[in-house]
């Protein structure tokens, strides 16, 4: 009898041990308010206001990790990206998933899986998916601590649990005509390739990327929020080309987001039993608009790249 | 002090240039092109092609051949205007442009101290360089021109070691629209958001980035 109970218990335990590698199931976003031209955005404190004490020092460490992630935390970054690649202006810019918009929204309850995720778990998710970093830093690690303190500081005096204007990447609705990969390729060549390269490979100085790679082995993996075409379209619409946010049409943003996210990138670390199809069904079928596990022009997307 | 690998690379590239082209890029640099009006580069840009700071003549040494060739072509077509360089570029043959830009690209530029985005930024110029002014959609200079402004690829030229007067003149030309040969107006729209004081400060910052000023 004891053995009978122990069997399933052990199996459960084993499953939990395996799942422990994935801190947060996905990078689905808390809904972001839609962008508004008149929006008065929250103003994070200025660098010059930082106190010269242990707190200020920790904020600076978090800032340094945020803008220089690959160099400062190489053991947790499996690609060529830095946090600041997708969170512009060092995590301060409205409509660029600013940290002051994210921090006050955690812990976050999610109905989808009836779970509460902490901010630390959200950061761990960034490391695992966006940074393709494998086992993420522990919740009480110096890295997560410094990044959390940096986010807390940027959110100084922000209301808790309030969806502030400019948080996340405000949704850009899919155009009525959907998206077109060929037109996306043309937008890419005209607007993006000068920085990100003809093959999305980014550009380096020495060993360090200056312009981030958008696909291939050094970019975000198939589990990252940015792999969703809707998320990438929103990011691009508000923020790209760098310094010229808002200059592309919604259609252009969707087309080029789809083009970028039709290219191979590192495999989804949640890969189910080695099966792209099972992974698609479990994690991608209800995760916004994405091409993972689909066949485009005879090629299966989501095979991963090492 | 020029690093050994840079010297070897320069030598190799010069060798390659000389064997691949009938035109001697070094000769164009020191003596000028075959046609009258194709003045030698070194007359204004210096024997080391590091520019002439008091006159605001830019550094050419170590700039990517693709960038230099584009500028010469733009001077030719009038896409970039300059009373000295436009007739000069028209007097250069296509082969001479290919050869001399390769020669210039192979010449050593200044050694730039390592600068990181995470380091503290004080003063108007350094803040623009490392932090930008995003409330006006002005990205960090280094996000396109690379750490310390060393330049990235063929489209984003080095700023480090350029004479301040040259950088000021170019930024002002973008501000008033007289220079507009950048890809997709990437530089023009940034420059138009800068004040005259900011232009001076950021030009000084990159002009003065020298190894001896490297911070611990």
From TrEMBL, chain A:
Any Pfam family: Cytochrome_CBB3
One GO MF annotation is: electron transfer activity
The secretion signal range is: 1-19
Provide this UniProt record's keywords sorted from A to Z.
Answer: Heme, Iron, Metal-binding, Signal
Instruction: List the transmembrane segments.
Output: none
Domain of life, per lineage:
Bacteria
User: Which Gene3D superfamilies does its entry note?
Assistant: Cytochrome c-like domain
Q: Which residues form the Cytochrome c domain?
A: 179-264
Listed name of the protein: C-type cytochrome
């Amino acid at each position: 009898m004891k053995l009978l109970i122990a069997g399933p218990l052990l199996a459960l335990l084993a499953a939990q041990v395996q799942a422990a590698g994935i801190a947060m199931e996905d990078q689905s976003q808390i809904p972001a308010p839609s962008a508004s031209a008149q929006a008065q955005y929250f103003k994070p404190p200025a660098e010059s206001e930082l106190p010269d004490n242990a707190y200020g020092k920790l904020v600076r460490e978090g800032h340094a990790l945020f803008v220089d992630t690959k160099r400062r935390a190489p053991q947790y970054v499996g690609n060529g990206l830095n946090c600041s690649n997708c969170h512009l202006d060092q995590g301060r810019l409205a409509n660029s998933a600013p940290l002051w918009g994210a921090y006050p929204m955690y812990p976050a309850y999610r109905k989808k899986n009836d779970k509460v995720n902490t901010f630390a778990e959200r950061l761990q998710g960034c490391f695992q998916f966006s940074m393709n970093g494998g086992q993420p830093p522990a919740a009480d690690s110096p890295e997560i601590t410094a990044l959390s303190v940096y986010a807390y500081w940027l959110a100084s005096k922000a209301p808790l649990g309030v969806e502030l204007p400019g948080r996340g990447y405000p949704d850009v609705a899919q155009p009525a005509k959907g998206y077109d990969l060929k037109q996306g390729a043309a937008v890419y060549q005209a607007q993006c390739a000068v920085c990100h390269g003809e093959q999305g490979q980014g550009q380096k100085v020495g060993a360090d990327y200056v312009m981030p790679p958008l696909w291939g082995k050094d970019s975000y993996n198939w589990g990252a929020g940015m792999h969703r075409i809707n998320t990438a379209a929103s990011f691009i619409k508000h923020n790209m080309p760098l310094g010229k946010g808002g200059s592309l049409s919604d259609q252009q943003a969707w087309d080029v987001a789809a083009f970028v996210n039709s290219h191979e990138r590192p495999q989804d670390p949640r890969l189910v039993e080695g099966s792209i199809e099972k992974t698609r069904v479990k994690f991608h079928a209800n995760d916004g608009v994405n091409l993972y596990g689909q066949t485009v022009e005879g090629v299966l997307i989501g095979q991963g790249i090492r | 002090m020029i690093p050994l690998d840079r010297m070897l690379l320069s030598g190799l590239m010069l060798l390659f240039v000389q064997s691949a082209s009938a035109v001697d890029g070094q000769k164009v640099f020191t003596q000028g092109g075959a046609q009258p009006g194709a003045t030698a580069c070194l007359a204004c840009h210096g024997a080391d092609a590091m520019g002439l700071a008091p006159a605001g003549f830019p550094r050419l040494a170590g700039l990517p051949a693709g960038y230099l060739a584009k500028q010469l072509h733009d001077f030719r077509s009038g896409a970039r205007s300059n009373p000295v360089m436009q007739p000069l570029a028209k007097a250069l043959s296509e082969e001479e442009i290919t050869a001399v830009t390769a020669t210039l690209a192979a010449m050593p530029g200044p050694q730039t101290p390592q600068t990181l985005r995470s380091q503290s930024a004080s003063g108007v110029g350094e803040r623009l360089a490392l932090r930008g002014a995003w409330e006006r959609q002005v990205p960090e200079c280094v996000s396109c021109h690379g750490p310390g402004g060393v330049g990235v690829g063929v489209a984003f030229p080095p700023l480090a070691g350029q004479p301040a007067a040259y950088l000021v003149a170019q930024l002002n030309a973008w501000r008033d629209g007289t220079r507009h040969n950048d890809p997709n107006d990437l530089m023009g729209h940034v420059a138009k958001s800068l004040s005259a004081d900011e232009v001076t400060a950021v030009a000084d910052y990159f002009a003065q980035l020298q190894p001896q000023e490297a911070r611990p």
